[in-house]
Amino acid sequence: MDNMKQNITYSRIEAPALTVVQGFAAAGVHCGLKRSSRDLALLYSEKPASAAGVFTQNRVQAAPVQLCRARIGNPIRALVVNSGNANACTGAKGMENAQEMAALAAAALGIDPGEVLVCSTGVIGQQLPIDRIQAGIRDAAAALSSSYQSGQDAAAAILTTDTVTKQAAYRGSLPEGSFHLAGMAKGAGMICPNMATMLAFIATDVQIARPLLQQLFQEAVDRSFNLITIDGDTSTNDTALVLANGAAGVEITPGSPGLDLFAGLLNRVCRDLARQIVSDGEGITKVIELTVRGAADEAAARVLARTVLNSPLVKTAFYGEDANWGRIMAALGYAGVPFDPEQVDIFIGPVQVASRGGAVPFREEEAKAVLQQREIAVTVDLNAGSAAVTAWGTDLTHEYVTINSHYRS
Amino acid sequence: MDNMKQNITYSRIEAPALTVVQGFAAAGVHCGLKRSSRDLALLYSEKPASAAGVFTQNRVQAAPVQLCRARIGNPIRALVVNSGNANACTGAKGMENAQEMAALAAAALGIDPGEVLVCSTGVIGQQLPIDRIQAGIRDAAAALSSSYQSGQDAAAAILTTDTVTKQAAYRGSLPEGSFHLAGMAKGAGMICPNMATMLAFIATDVQIARPLLQQLFQEAVDRSFNLITIDGDTSTNDTALVLANGAAGVEITPGSPGLDLFAGLLNRVCRDLARQIVSDGEGITKVIELTVRGAADEAAARVLARTVLNSPLVKTAFYGEDANWGRIMAALGYAGVPFDPEQVDIFIGPVQVASRGGAVPFREEEAKAVLQQREIAVTVDLNAGSAAVTAWGTDLTHEYVTINSHYRS
Fold first, then answer.
1. ipTM field
2. pLDDT tens, residue by residue, A313-324
3. Which of A105, A248, A368, B79 has the lowest tally of Cβ within 10 angstroms?
């Protein structure tokens, strides 16, 4: 994607919002699930859109996740999202409420309930106050617009205690026309007690068949949202969705010249949002970008990277700005993936701290200078092949413990 | 074991030490690996002992672990243990040093180097100062005795920053005579930066063939040390060893009447030591005893229990004394084991907090009263079978972060 062919170019949109995508309107309102901030978002597509989704691997799946899984193959016209209540561990009543949310949105928009997807995030184990949801959907439907501000309102309404909205948008240009791709997300990890869930919603105005969209999206998610970790806790509600409504008049097919550009921009939007989520992780002081390279295959590199980034001992070492490569070696060792410990090189920034699995002399002050930064690049070279993966994690801090040991309320 | 047959009884020894076991002598000395406290332990058996061992699953295995694995089938006369340096990630030189430790102990004791096992715990990635080890082994060999105090000295010398020694001992009585079983251990988790390793050493004076001893020990370890977790980080040096020297004149065979008693006491010693390790976990304020029952099989129950006890969100909730059952449900869900979320009941102490996967009304103050205790029993009932497992974990505290973010020194 770095060497675009003539007439195939792209640009990053500096003021991103889902509403930059043609044929999409959005709204974000307050309906009383949270004390005062916006807590219900609505996204509407003028035309039926192809939808693709990637959902939590957790065996405990919230009602809206089950609803989305069942409907993802339909043409989709709308998405309704509430924050403040996860509608998880809520049984048959919870599923009724998720269906009711879709039905209320469908009625307000004059579309079919089967064309509506639903997501929820917030407290686990409490039933949704459906009367407030009903009022929220009514207000949101009335407020729908394709303005920049409406996009901001929707991005704000899906947050729990994230400190900032997460958005990204690109414009792609092909000889036959231009298209847009934009996304919004909310934080991973339990940013507040009982507040679960990573949510990511991406809209595009290309025309693309569902199977190809699902394939490209799964690849993009595997290289972005599936390579970030804040605390290793997989929520019951994690959902990433992409909607493609064809409003731009540009079609993406397996053989089309725009395929690489679209796939590349889909990757960029996902990675951009994923990094924004990590950067807003609970109580963090460091973002760790870990590259595992020289691996025999990408799947092994992926497991090793996630295991290192989930180790409490590695995470506290980064919090303490400690070039503690022994903890990285130990975490690699229990990842359950074969590799030769005596071939491993480890670098913190440009400073090599371990060679062939053992100590190597290095200047502590050089490593310290890297470790004092907020963003730290760490490289593990297995010297066993040519596969590589880059993943993102955080440190583990006193503030994380404070945030997550607060009583529910 | 609760219904002992006539003439088959046992008693707990109130002042436990390895040296209560006949035919074993011990010593613990200071040789300069740590600043001032004892850092080298020696255990000696008058007769060659059958040995069985269970070692770390970490792919990065310290040199002494590799040495023990290679020699565990030999008749064993001595065990030498140093704290303050893990001899891990130390390459060929590290293996030479582990062999040299065994050779030095063998020379001091007048036995064969193949009869000596070696363990190390402490900083990863630094070579052992073998001259200090040499002096320590010389002093320890001179100090060997079967006194109670020598047992205490050995138990102290294997610690890193554990705050107390961990010991347990039992006497078993059979019609043909009595025997002893005693153990000492050091803490799991990285109790100090870079200080790795759980170590457990058990001695007994029964006569038992190695294959049976290994089988019984593996079962006991699976129900004790393999069911505790403090931070989920598996060290490079974890080692549990049992030595049986036959000095009591009691033989345990697959058909002998004392088999159940011996196996039961081996389980008790292991569980007792395991609980002592958890109770001395780094920075903890709570010990959580989690029982997963109603499982289809024990293997599944084991994975579920460990996943819940390793969840940072579950651990911080207990630190905050929060009856946050939604986090327990979420952790069960990502354990990777099949179960039906809608059948799960959860109890905190006697208080049911979730029923069939959903909320159930309970009195917060009753749950709070349980959560304010230092030891908290939690029960997860899967309502799917008759298998059950009990595992032990801790909360995650500010003090844990403080301890583990300190700079190496």
1. 0.75
2. 899 999 999 988
3. A368
